[in-house]
Design goal:
Layout lengths: L1 E5 L3 H13 L3 E5 L2 H9 L5 E5 L7 H10 L6 E5 L4 H9 L4 E4 L4 H13 L9 E4 L2 E4 L4 E4 L2 E4 L2 H12 L4 E3 H9 L7 H17 L4 E6 L3 E6 L3
Parallel strand pairs: 1-2, 1-3, 3-4, 4-5
Antiparallel strand pairs: 6-7, 7-8, 8-9, 10-12, 11-12
Helix pairs in contact: 2-3, 6-7, 6-8
């Protein structure tokens, strides 16, 4: 699961980034509102932790812009502003939850789990299914009709993108952003290599699913017809 953390307190930002990463999350962190909006507009995150009082653009303005652009990723506002009016304002602007500082890390984890459970693309066991396959994102295991194999982290992240957007052509740029992140300088040839690896994995477990190339655009995951 990929998290965007927008927090201008340097110590808190570093601490949360480290602890979230230790729990297995992929974390992109930033410290001002302009950066937060840029990252969030890529629409590659499963949840956003958004400080309300950010430099350059405050968190409520970032949230307003995201919702105006129909970006529906779950947002948890984290802030020292904890009055009832502050909470109502944040929730009315489109936040999914509102967590007042200081807070316990375990409570933050619980809030993340809660808002992501509301998303149709995430279930409690973190197992994704499509056609004849199931993929457990926690263990990186791909299964099909009694056959299974382990995927590398990158292979698993790539497969997740397709499983969370079934029956859609995924542009190459989107795949690079979601799997390698917005700050990566990865070459596009690496994407082609991992598409090849993933095709081989699907074939090895006997799946009817096939990764098809949409020339000039990206890739499409579909079931082979007999």
């Amino acid at each position: 699961m990929r998290i965007l953390l927008a927090e201008d307190d340097e110590n808190l930002n570093k601490s949360l980034t480290k602890r979230l990463a230790a729990r297995g999350f992929d974390v992109d962190s930033c410290s001002d509102g302009d950066e937060a909006l840029y990252y969030a507009e890529q629409n590659i995150h499963d949840v956003i932790l958004l400080d309300r009082m950010l430099p350059h653009m405050d968190g409520t303005k970032v949230l307003q812009k995201l919702r105006a652009e129909n970006i529906a990723v779950p947002v948890i506002i984290i802030t020292a502003l904890g009055t009832l009016g502050d909470k109502v304002t944040g929730l009315n602007l489109g936040a999914d939850d509102y967590l007042v500082k200081p807070f316990e890390f375990e409570e933050l984890i619980a809030r993340i789990q809660c808002v992501t459970r509301r998303s149709l693309t995430i279930n409690m066991t973190n197992t994704l299914e499509l056609a004849d396959i199931s993929y457990n994102a926690d263990s990186n295991v791909l299964s099909c009709n009694g056959e299974s194999c382990s995927l590398s982290n990158r292979e698993g992240a790539l497969l997740e993108v397709f499983l969370r957007s079934p029956n859609q052509t995924i542009p190459r740029g989107t795949l690079l952003l979601k799997v390698w992140g917005p700050d990566s300088d990865v070459e596009e040839g690496n994407l082609d290599n991992y598409i090849h690896f993933l095709r081989r994995r699907l074939k090895n477990v006997g799946s009817s699913l096939e990764l098809r190339t949409v020339r000039g655009i990206g890739y499409f995951l579909e079931a082979r017809t007999t």
